[in-house]
């Protein structure tokens, strides 16, 4: 008998971006019908994939690094409460303020209140998946505050009225011609002669952003890591926009998922090697900013850390499923995933798309709200091989599928067609006589495909197969019949 | 050596020639093949679709059938992958630790065909003759669950009369994925389309692989396209002689 204490809870409905409006197969169908999107994604994922493979191959200790990363994460999760409390104490001790948010609603309320207290109506933002997860920009907008994204790709997404479709490269679904159109349409003061030449696009964004960096008084960031032993927070990035946001404004508010804590600086060393090679395919990322509390006369003089749960403790409660919390958001699994490469990120309906999204999102929201995601994988295993912290994503997907099936079974006593089929197949296959009889019965299929040996059309649900693929005509004799006939006397 | 053949339910029911080829091949190499007739299915489809409760009796049955044998072979990376990496897990999750230990023991004696030939029997030239233009698709579970690496290619390179053509993006999934091919038919088909494009680009007459399931998928697509490329299981090529 267990007593329900009200915790842990899942990420609440109606706030943030963890739930799509359609199941994955339907959303994927829409994405697959867009040839430009397919080309953009194919080109981009291949480029990053090749870069990653090249820099990973340079390290002969890559497997040891991965194992070290996995071990540190597992050990950290096992005592997450202690590390978080350490982090909290250290941040307070160095002049910062720590807030605990049990979910997206609470985190948004805290940040909105903090921004309101400063009296500003515009904040600059460092690229952050966590604030996308909780829908912070929308919450601030509702409170009359403009949240300006400053990462180039996030800016493209924001100006395009769009959502990120990739963890690292949020505008991966756009090509430069589309970006030019968005800038011309949405960017105030842009040069009308703008071309789709990358340097020109970057310079336009630079001019637009520079003005906002210089006038910003409040910045909002996420965090890649929080180092418990000193209370240091870390952001790694490529463009330097993050460095601007983290150093220029008077007030800095950081929203960090509570799984991002690492116990010590020595632990950070492992991840700072794993992350850039896995994400951008670089040996080292151009900017690594680490700040600790408040330093008088240098950088923001007000620092707030918001520690976000939003379903993470619920994931932690599952001793196997919690492996998804080891993710360092490198997005290597997206880039190698054959499903992601073809559907893009929006089909997943969550800010966390791809293989890691398919195991993380349902755990944050509760599986009933994202039941189609664990099935959005052919279990090819490429994600596991690419993961810098060795998250066994295929096994987690299978585990979540089992959890979903069990939940559905508990929810209704009327079995679905799939449940009946699986039960019947299981019954048939536990006994060789029944299996042999089923093989014989399948031979009625031999009325089909007589000319070519292949069957081209079958009724639903098998039409899902035959819509694009033929099926072989059942043979006249099964293997076991052949064996009994030829070798049965042995 | 006495080798028990786990033919797999798919080969038994739809591709009996694959099972016959394994028997012919291993006997030619001087081994004794036995077929435990009580065998059915490894339960992978159930496990991967989330029906672990239904899979448990299948796992137990498989363990009981194959427990008496020292060396077990299956012409499928995927089914061997399930035996090796899932059976003990299913038993353990159902709270049957004894079955998990027995399943693990059977798993360690179960080999995919190319693993058996190269690692256990120490052969990489099986004396086959196959005068065709062939390209090889390394199936995901052979590659990433079992790590068969270059073993099937080593075997294929020693086949007389054969031209082996390199498949571009060979390690990309064909989109089968068991019930994935039905539940996410559109995405599966998009993956298949790219795989077929690469297969056709090689100009091969024959696409081979170590898994009947992936070949059923790619072959079903190639047949629909009237591409003229046919699919043949690795075992059938290795069993072929002059």
Automatic annotation (TrEMBL), chain A:
<dbReference type="GO" id="GO:0051539">
    <property type="term" value="F:4 iron, 4 sulfur cluster binding"/>
</dbReference>
<dbReference type="Pfam" id="PF11870">
    <property type="entry name" value="LutB_C"/>
</dbReference>
<keyword id="KW-0411">Iron-sulfur</keyword>
<dbReference type="InterPro" id="IPR004452">
    <property type="entry name" value="LutB/LldF"/>
</dbReference>
<dbReference type="InterPro" id="IPR017900">
    <property type="entry name" value="4Fe4S_Fe_S_CS"/>
</dbReference>
<dbReference type="InterPro" id="IPR024185">
    <property type="entry name" value="FTHF_cligase-like_sf"/>
</dbReference>
<dbReference type="InterPro" id="IPR003741">
    <property type="entry name" value="LUD_dom"/>
</dbReference>
<keyword id="KW-0677">Repeat</keyword>
<keyword id="KW-0004">4Fe-4S</keyword>
<dbReference type="Pfam" id="PF02589">
    <property type="entry name" value="LUD_dom"/>
</dbReference>
<protein>
    <submittedName>
        <fullName>Iron-sulfur cluster-binding protein</fullName>
    </submittedName>
</protein>
<keyword id="KW-0249">Electron transport</keyword>
<keyword id="KW-0479">Metal-binding</keyword>
<dbReference type="InterPro" id="IPR037171">
    <property type="entry name" value="NagB/RpiA_transferase-like"/>
</dbReference>
<dbReference type="Pfam" id="PF13183">
    <property type="entry name" value="Fer4_8"/>
</dbReference>
<dbReference type="GO" id="GO:0006089">
    <property type="term" value="P:lactate metabolic process"/>
</dbReference>
<dbReference type="GO" id="GO:0046872">
    <property type="term" value="F:metal ion binding"/>
</dbReference>
<dbReference type="InterPro" id="IPR017896">
    <property type="entry name" value="4Fe4S_Fe-S-bd"/>
</dbReference>
<keyword id="KW-0813">Transport</keyword>
<keyword id="KW-0408">Iron</keyword>
<feature type="domain" description="Lactate utilization protein B C-terminal">
    <location>
        <begin position="411"/>
        <end position="486"/>
    </location>
</feature>
<feature type="domain" description="LUD">
    <location>
        <begin position="84"/>
        <end position="294"/>
    </location>
</feature>
Automatic annotation (TrEMBL), chain B:
<feature type="domain" description="Cysteine-rich">
    <location>
        <begin position="134"/>
        <end position="218"/>
    </location>
</feature>
<protein>
    <submittedName>
        <fullName>Glycolate oxidase</fullName>
    </submittedName>
</protein>
<dbReference type="InterPro" id="IPR004017">
    <property type="entry name" value="Cys_rich_dom"/>
</dbReference>
<feature type="domain" description="Cysteine-rich">
    <location>
        <begin position="3"/>
        <end position="82"/>
    </location>
</feature>
<dbReference type="GO" id="GO:0016491">
    <property type="term" value="F:oxidoreductase activity"/>
</dbReference>
<dbReference type="GO" id="GO:0005829">
    <property type="term" value="C:cytosol"/>
</dbReference>
<dbReference type="Pfam" id="PF02754">
    <property type="entry name" value="CCG"/>
</dbReference>
């Amino acid at each position: 008998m267990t007593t329900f204490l009200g915790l842990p809870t899942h990420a609440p409905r109606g706030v943030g971006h963890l739930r799509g409006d359609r199941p994955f197969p339907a959303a994927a169908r829409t994405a697959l019908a867009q040839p430009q999107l397919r080309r953009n994604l194919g080109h981009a994922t291949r480029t990053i994939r090749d870069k990653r493979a090249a820099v990973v191959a340079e390290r002969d200790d890559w497997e040891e690094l991965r194992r070290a990363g996995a071990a540190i994460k597992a050990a950290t999760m096992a005592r997450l409460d202690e590390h978080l409390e350490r982090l909290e104490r250290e941040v307070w001790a160095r002049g910062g303020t720590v807030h605990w948010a049990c979910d997206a609603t609470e985190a948004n309320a805290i940040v909105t209140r903090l921004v309101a207290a400063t009296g500003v109506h515009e904040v600059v933002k460092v690229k952050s998946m966590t604030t996308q997860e909780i829908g912070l920009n929308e919450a601030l907008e509702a409170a009359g505050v403009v949240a300006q994204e400053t990462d180039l790709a996030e800016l493209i997404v924001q100006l395009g009225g769009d959502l990120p479709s990739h963890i690292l490269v949020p505008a991966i679904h756009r090509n430069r011609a589309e970006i030019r159109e968005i800038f011309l349409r949405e960017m105030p003061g842009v040069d009308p002669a703008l071309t789709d030449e990358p340097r020109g696009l970057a310079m336009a964004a630079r001019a637009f952003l520079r003005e906002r960096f210089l006038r910003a008084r409040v910045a909002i960031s996420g965090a890649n890591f929080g180092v418990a032993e000193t209370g240091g927070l870390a952001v790694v990035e490529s463009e330097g926009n993050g460095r601007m946001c983290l150093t220029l404004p008077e007030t800095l508010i950081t929203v960090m998922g509570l799984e991002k804590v690492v116990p010590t600086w020595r632990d950070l060393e492992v991840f700072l090697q794993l992350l850039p090679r896995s994400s951008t395919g670089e040996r080292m990322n151009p900017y690594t900013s680490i700040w600790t509390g408040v330093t008088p006369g240098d950088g923001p003089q007000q620092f707030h850390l918001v520690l976000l749960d939003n379903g993470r403790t619920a994931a932690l409660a599952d001793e196997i499923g919690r492996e998804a919390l080891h993710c360092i958001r490198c997005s290597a699994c997206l880039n190698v995933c054959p499903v992601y490469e073809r559907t893009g990120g929006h089909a997943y309906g969550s800010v966390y798309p791809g293989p890691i999204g398919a195991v993380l999102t349902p755990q944050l929201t509760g599986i009933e709200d994202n039941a189609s995601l664990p099935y959005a994988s052919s279990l090819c295993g490429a994600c596991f091989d690419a993961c810098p912290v060795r998250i066994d994503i295929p096994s987690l997907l299978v585990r979540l599928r089992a959890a979903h099936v069990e939940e559905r079974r508990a929810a209704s006593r009327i079995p679905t067609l799939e449940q009946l089929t699986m039960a019947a197949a299981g019954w048939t296959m536990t006994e060789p006589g029944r299996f042999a009889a089923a093989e014989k019965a399948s031979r009625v299929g031999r009325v089909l495909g007589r000319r070519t040996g292949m069957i081209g059309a079958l009724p639903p649900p098998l039409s899902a197969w035959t819509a694009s693929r033929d099926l072989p005509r059942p043979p006249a004799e099964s293997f076991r019949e052949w064996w009994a006939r030829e070798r049965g006397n042995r | 050596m006495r080798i028990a053949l786990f033919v797999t339910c798919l080969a038994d029911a739809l591709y009996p020639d694959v099972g016959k080829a394994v028997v012919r091949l291993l006997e030619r190499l001087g081994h004794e093949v036995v077929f435990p007739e009580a065998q059915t299915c490894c339960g992978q489809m159930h496990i991967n679709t989330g029906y672990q409760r239904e899979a448990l009796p299948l796992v137990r049955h498989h363990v009981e059938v194959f427990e008496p044998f020292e060396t077990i072979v299956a012409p499928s990376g995927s089914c061997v992958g399930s035996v090796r990496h899932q059976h003990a897990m299913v038993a353990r999750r159902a709270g049957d630790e004894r079955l998990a230990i027995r399943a693990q023991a059977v798993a360690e004696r179960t080999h995919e065909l190319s693993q058996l030939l190269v690692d256990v029997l120490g052969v990489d030239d099986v004396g086959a003759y196959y005068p065709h233009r062939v390209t090889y698709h390394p199936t995901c579970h052979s590659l990433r669950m079992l790590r068969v690496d270059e073993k099937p290619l080593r075997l294929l390179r020693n086949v007389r009369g054969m031209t082996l053509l390199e498949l571009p993006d060979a390690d990309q999934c064909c989109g089968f994925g068991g019930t994935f091919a039905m539940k996410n038919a559109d995405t599966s088909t998009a993956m298949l389309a790219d795989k077929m494009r690469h297969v056709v680009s090689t100009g091969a007459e024959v696409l081979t692989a170590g898994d009947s399931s992936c070949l059923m998928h790619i072959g079903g697509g190639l047949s629909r396209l009237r591409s003229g490329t046919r699919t043949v299981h690795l075992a059938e090529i290795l069993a072929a002689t002059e």
